Amino acid sequence: MLEAQKGAAMAEAQLEADVAQIKSMNQDRKRFNDLVMAVAKDATGKDHGKTPKEWREALAGGNKSSKRPSNPSKPTIPEEVPLVYNPAFAPVGFSTQTLTQTRVIEDA
User: Fold this and answer.
1) Which of 66, 86, 94, 97 is 20 to 30 Å apart from 20, CA to CA?
2) 5-22 pLDDT, tens per residue?
């Protein structure tokens, strides 16, 4: 039971670290997008919004008949992530014995 609890705690910690890493990456991407939108606004002298999608629509002239779907879905990529810690379970109620000395008797 102790190994299962330790494994669960380690898996939870690994999940929290993964979520924190993804949030950090998303914050970096948002800062980059904000920078690009500010440069585009300064370069054109126009403000078409705060998101790349709003700018693409404005630059396309609001033409909704583009080849892109109106609500494209983002791909989801399932990936199995190995756990950092794998619990080792032993049979309950069994003990192991180590042989430390062997006596050999020869018949003459």
Assistant:
1) 86
2) 888 898 899 999 999 999
